[in-house]
Structures are given as structure tokens and as C-alpha cells.
Design the sequence.
């Protein structure tokens, strides 16, 4: 009874599951709730749910973990990859995992090797310029009396 009420509160977004609550679901082998949290949970609960599903050795959650690999939150996809590796899945799935990891390495290397844009120098006044001629002009304008 308590399980169904808790699950209902989570589905209605009235209860945000904590790590201890997810651990309780894991101890009780509630893979249905953990799969729901992996699919619809917040960005904080999805990686915890993926790890809990792997610790439970729930092989029915492999398709859901394969979907979670392509999550927009990086920590979720890493947790899903680690969970799939922990479950020791088929060779085809391992190829997908390796491709995803190499893709991340390539993205990281592309970002670190990209040329950095120089910052534009901001001027307080629109008539202020960096050349010596304009500096002289600024000095002349400062000498004039204020109207």
C-alpha cells in the first residue's frame, strides 16, 4: 500500500525521490518505479535510477538504458553507459557503448583544440578609440569648457 501511494505521489510530481528512497526501491526490487524514474525523473534522479537498475541486475531495463545513453544531460548518459557495462550485455550493445564513448572523446578534443576568439575591447565612450590620433582628439575635447 505504501509503495503504491509513494509511486502515485512521484507520478503526480508531488514527491521528489531522494537517494535514500531510490535505495529503498532497489532493496525492494521495484524495477517498475526505477524504470519510471529513469524515463521521467529529474536530472538528479535519472543517474541514480540507472545505477540502481544495474545494481539490481535488471536485464529488462536494457532497452531503456540504451535510450538513456542519448540523454541531453551528460551525467545521465554516463550512468546509463556504466550500467550497461555492469550488466555485461551483448557484443552489439558493447559496440554502441564504445562508439558513444569515442564520440564524447572526439567532441572533447574538438572543443579543447578550437581556436579561441579574441575578446573585443569595449569602450566606455563611442568617440574613444585606441589610436594615438584619437587619443589626442580626446585630450582636446577634455580641454574644452562644458556648455
Sequence:
Amino acid at each position: 500500500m505504501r509503495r503504491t501511494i509513494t509511486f502515485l505521489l512521484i507520478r503526480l510530481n508531488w514527491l521528489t525521490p531522494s537517494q535514500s528512497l531510490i535505495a529503498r526501491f532497489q532493496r525492494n526490487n521495484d524495477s517498475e518505479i526505477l524504470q519510471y524514474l529513469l524515463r521521467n525523473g529529474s536530472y538528479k534522479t535519472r543517474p541514480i535510477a540507472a545505477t540502481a537498475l544495474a545494481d539490481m541486475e535488471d536485464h529488462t531495463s536494457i532497452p531503456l538504458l540504451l535510450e538513456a545513453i542519448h540523454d541531453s544531460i551528460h551525467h545521465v548518459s554516463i550512468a546509463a553507459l556504466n550500467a550497461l557495462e555492469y550488466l555485461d550485455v551483448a557484443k552489439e550493445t558493447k559496440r554502441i557503448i564504445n562508439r558513444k564513448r569515442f564520440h564524447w572523446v572526439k567532441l572533447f578534443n574538438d572543443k579543447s583544440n578550437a581556436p579561441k576568439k579574441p575578446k573585443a575591447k569595449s569602450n566606455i565612450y563611442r568617440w574613444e578609440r585606441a589610436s594615438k590620433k584619437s587619443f589626442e582628439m580626446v585630450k582636446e575635447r577634455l580641454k574644452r569648457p562644458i556648455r
